[in-house]
Each structure stands twice: as C-alpha cells, then as structure tokens.
Specification:
Strand content: 25-35%
Order of helices and strands: EEEEHHHEHEEEEEEHEEH
Number of strands: 13
Largest sheet: 7 strands, mixed
Number of helices: 6
Number of domains: 3
Helix content: 25-40%
C-alpha cells in the first residue's frame, strides 16, 4: 500500500531570469545568479513531476501564487528558496533581484520551517479554522434551538431519593419498591388534565398512600404492581377529580399526608423526554465546544504566522532601505 508523504519538496520548473550580485557567502564576491521557479509537490510524487514552460514573461514578477521562487549560483552549487514574506515583497516589486542574496544571508539563521513555502501548517491553519468554526457553529446552533429545557428531561432516580426530596410538579422515572401504608379502591373516574398522556387505556383503580421519611404521599395506580417502580407524572391534586370523601378519610387517619400533589403512575407530560431521547444533545453540545476550541486553536496559529510574516516584511524592508541609504551616502 502506497502512503502519501505530507512533506513538500521543491521541483525545479524554469529559470525565470539571471542577474549579477554579490555573494555574501563568499565574502561579497560578484557572482551570476539564476532566479528559479519551483513547484512544491509531495515527496511521494516528486519523481513524477516534470518541468513546465515559463508561465510569465522573464521581466515580470507576477509568478503565480502556487509556485515558489528561489535563487541559485550554479558554479558554486548554492540554492535558496525565498521565505514566504520575502516572496511577497519580491512579487510586489518592493525588493529587487540583487537584494535577494544578501538579504537571505542576513535573515536565514532566524527563520523557522513554517516561514518557507511547503510548510503545511501555515497553509492549512486558516482552512481548518473555517471548517471547524462552521462545524462548531452548526452544532451549537442546533443544540440551542432544539435541545430541551432541563425540566423536560425525565432523569432516572431511586424511589428512596424521590421520597426524601420535596414534592414538585414534574415527571419521575423511579426504580425501587415504595413502601405502601394504605391502598384505597377508587369508585369514580380520575380526570386526566390537558397536556398529559397515559401509557395505558385502563382507568386508575387504586389510590395508594406511600411512606416517605418526613410525610406520606399519594399515588394513583392501575394496580398494586406499580409500587415496584412508581414512575409517572407528579400533578397537583386540584387538577384531578379525586373522591374528596376518600381523601378526607385519609387525612383524618394520616395527619402527615401530603395531599397537595399526587403521583399519577403511567402518565407523563406530552413534552417529557427520557434520557434515551436526549442522548444526542450532549454530543451536540460538547462536539460544538470541542470543534470551537479547535477553530480557535487553528485561528491562533493562523494569526501567529500572519503577524510573523507582516513583521518580517516590515523588518526586511527596513534593512533594504538602510542598505540603499548607505550605498547612496557612500
């Protein structure tokens, strides 16, 4: 199986033009230089690359951005690829051909691999920033728009935990048997409020009194098997047409009975969601945050190299100006 190398190597395309300039690596002696155009290709396919015909006239600096520019002295076998910032200056005509040898000699010891064409990270960073940024925006927007409010999610909890917690209107999904103090057979139909769905078409037949640590609680059941996991919707008693005479009798017998709320087993709110229904939402949330972090990371890398190239260009132009002023004064 052939693997593709991510290492980019320069493949010589054509000699754009020649010029004479001092060779700073040889004590400033005059030398003949070639301005060479290269194409950067994967090291895996470098042997397949072939030279192209010149794409622009020899007198023009408008070398296409996809190509790299370098200099060479054939008689001394010296080759240099221009760093990105210097290529931009040369293409813009702010640095002349004869400035290239001494300027490269002056600055190359402070250059990094990412300063040269062929380094993938400075090129890929803005692409990754945009791609991960879009993914993060889509995931987080979807999470904000469709993720349910916490109150709509019915979390699993033990029956003991629910019996210890204060009663409130919400859906519960309980595990564990509840201790029953009394089971009362109902003679009248229980009204189901609007917005509530029933898991069974059977009417409630039993009103159970459950023992909690600090009080007793009411639960409506189809049959007494519901005490093994009394899950459903906790509703206000006033929303149900319970038999008031039966309630009054229970209040008299159990003074600590909480009659403000009733657990209606098998019922649930229409907008209630189980944990299984919302498994995707945390993925959207953390996926959005994770890709957002990657977008910021690659954005920071892109900003670093952009600022570095601008500073290099300004510093190198200042060197060229000082050299020109020194030559003029001399």
């Amino acid at each position: 199986m052939t693997t593709v190398s991510l290492r980019m190597v320069p493949v010589r395309q054509w000699v754009h033009r020649t010029f004479e300039a001092a060779d700073p690596w040889e004590g400033g002696r005059l030398a003949s230089w070639n301005l060479v155009v290269y194409r950067l290709v994967s090291a895996s396919f470098a042997h397949l690359a072939t030279p192209e015909a010149p794409a622009v006239a020899a007198g023009s600096n408008a070398i296409p951005p996809g190509l790299a520019v370098g200099i060479e002295t054939p008689e001394r076998d010296r080759h240099r690829i221009l760093p990105r910032a210097l290529q931009n200056l040369w293409r813009a005509g702010k640095v002349g051909d004869r400035d290239l040898p001494w300027l490269i000699n002056r600055v190359e010891t402070n250059l990094r691999r990412g300063d040269y064409p062929g380094s993938l990270m400075p090129q890929l960073a803005p692409i990754y920033m945009i791609v991960f940024g879009l993914i993060a925006a889509i995931l987080l927007a979807a999470y904000v728009v469709i993720a349910p409010a916490p109150g709509r999610v019915v979390l699993f909890e033990s029956t003991d935990e629910w019996l210890k917690a204060p009663l409130a209107e919400r859906d519960v999904s309980l595990s564990g048997r509840a201790q029953t103090v009394e089971l009362v057979r109902l003679e009248s139909h229980v009204r189901r409020p609007q917005g509530i769905s029933a898991g069974t078409h059977r009417d409630y037949a039993i009103l159970a009194v459950l023992q909690a640590p600090a009080e007793k609680r009411l639960a409506l059941m189809v049959d007494d098997s519901a005490v093994n996991g009394p899950s459903g919707a906790v509703l206000k008693r006033l929303d149900l047409n319970l038999d008031e005479r039966a309630l009054e009798d229970l209040r008299r017998r159990f003074p600590d009975l909480n009659t403000g709320y009733v657990l209606c087993t098998g019922w649930h709110r229409n907008d209630a969601l189980s944990p299984a229904d919302v498994e995707l939402y945390p993925v959207m949330k953390w996926g959005g945050l994770g890709t957002g972090f990657l977008a910021l990371l690659f954005g920071s890398i892109h900003l670093f190299w952009s600022v570095r190239r601008r500073r290099q260009a300004a510093a190198w132009l200042a060197l060229v100006d000082r050299k020109a002023m020194s030559a003029g004064a001399g």
